[in-house]
Design brief:
The protein is of the alpha+beta class. The protein folds into three domains: about 140 residues, no CATH class; about 80 residues, Helix Hairpins; about 120 residues, Histidine kinase-like ATPase, C-terminal domain (Heat Shock Protein 90), CATH 3.30.565. Helices cover about 55% and strands about 15% of the residues. It has eight helices and eleven strands. The strands form three sheets. Strands 6-8-9-11-10 form a five-stranded mixed β-sheet. The protein has a four-stranded antiparallel β-sheet with strand order 1-4-3-2, covered by helices on one side. The chain is rod-shaped and about 150 Å long. It is found in: Cell membrane. Pfam families: HisKA. This is histidine kinase.
């Protein structure tokens, strides 16, 4: 059936309800029609039976009312249409535009059949009653249809309102949406709403734990990080100034600075809102160039940076550094070819060829997740595409 192909649940229920109402209306009118016809036949049959019994009780001398009936006996000449009925019983015969009702019975004396037949319009005495019955039944039918329609619309309204309430609560499941309560007084719908409330609380609790973990971890890292930075500065002063020692000292100092930036980014990422002193106007091209310059030489040579137009954005610098480092490291992990980076007014495009044979065992797939979290927090766009054996990622800052 075509209505079963309807994908929208509300529309399907509406169509099914309408079809059910139409079927019920048809069955109601059919019942009225059959009932009227059956009542007419029963009434005519009882009248003919009554006349036949009176005729028999008078020893076949008092004939039925000649104004209403025709009596045919074995001695009379039967009409051609009537002669074919020989067995006792109540019959209806369509004679032209008129339907003739009659009774065939057996004379107990002569053992011959006799016929009591309604005259031309005598069996239509119930027409006035039938007309009134049709009016009454029609009004009752209309009332019943309106009642059923109203009930169906009421049930449909309850269902749609409950479904709309569940949809609204599902829309509020994301953590940035307001909380909601259980409102329905229907047990089934109430149970669904309770499950949605529990899911909302679970999401909020998970996010809260994640933020607290980031904040606690970053806070606890600060103390040993301070020690590392101080030790790096002390080594710089104490070690001989030859190139090898200077290189070791610079690497330790650079790593401690990167770790400090990571700690600051984690702390900011765990905050609900960023303070104004954390936001600064940054030239994205300069930050990106600085990140590329700190890459190991084999990685830096594989980066192709195309600066079409400068982009300025107001954001924490640690966020941008974390984004660029993760995207570049992710690209280098999955290909040994060049990485194309294009900076223009639409944002930054990172594009690299895909090579299934190149994959680092140290890659856990968290880099893109971190980038996506930062973009979501700052309201930036983050679009991934894969076509022609190339993976592309577009960052938009508008």
């Amino acid at each position: 059936m075509r209505f079963l192909r309807i994908k929208n649940l509300r529309q399907r229920i509406t169509v099914i309800t309408a079809i059910t109402a139409l079927i019920f209306s048809f069955l109601f009118w059919l019942l009225i029609y059959v009932a009227e016809d059956t009542m007419e036949l029963i009434s005519l049959h009882n009248w003919l039976e009554s006349e036949s019994k009176s005729y028999q009780l008078s020893d076949y001398r008092r004939v039925p009312n000649p104004l209403e009936f025709d009596l045919f006996t074995a001695d009379d000449r039967l009409p051609q249409w009537l002669s074919q009925y020989r067995k006792p019983g109540f019959y209806e015969h369509q004679l032209g535009p008129e339907d003739k009702h009659f009774l065939v019975s057996i004379n107990s004396n002569s053992k011959q059949p006799y016929y009591i037949v309604f005259k031309d319009d005598a069996d239509d005495y119930l027409d006035a009653y039938e007309e009134r019955l049709q009016w009454v039944s029609g009004l009752l039918g209309v009332f019943a249809m309106l009642l059923i329609l109203g009930y169906s619309l009421w049930v449909l309204h309850i269902f749609r309102a409950s479904l709309r309430g569940i949809e609204n609560k599902i829309d509020c499941l994301p953590p940035d949406k307001p909380a909601f309560k259980v409102e329905s007084n229907l047990d089934d719908i109430r149970q669904l709403e309770e499950q949605l409330v529990a899911a909302k609380n679970t999401i909020l609790l998970s996010i809260q734990r994640e933020r607290e973990f980031n904040q606690f971890a970053a806070h606890e890292i600060r103390s040993p990080l301070t020690v590392i930075q101080g030790s790096a500065e002390l080594l710089t002063e104490l070690l001989p100034t030859d190139s090898k020692n200077r290189q070791i000292s610079q690497r330790i100092t650079g790593a401690s600075q990167e770790l400090k930036q990571l700690v600051n980014a984690l702390l900011l990422l765990g905050q609900t809102e960023l303070d104004e002193h954390h936001i600064q106007r940054i030239d994205i091209t300069e930050v990106l160039t600085a990140v590329i310059a700190k890459l190991p030489e084999p990685y830096a040579k594989r980066v192709e940076l195309h600066k079409v137009s400068p982009i300025y954005v107001e954001a924490p610098e640690s966020f941008l550094i974390m984004i660029f480092k993760n995207l570049i490291q992710n690209a280098m992990t999955h290909t040994d070819r060049s990485l194309l980076i294009r900076v223009d007014e639409e944002g930054i495009l990172f594009s690299n060829p895909l090579q299934s044979s190149v994959h680092s065992a140290e890659s856990f797939g968290y880099g893109l997740i971190i980038v996506e979290r930062i973009c979501h927090k700052m309201g930036w766009t983050f679009t991934k595409t894969q076509a022609n054996n190339r993976f592309s990622l577009q960052l938009g800052f508008s």
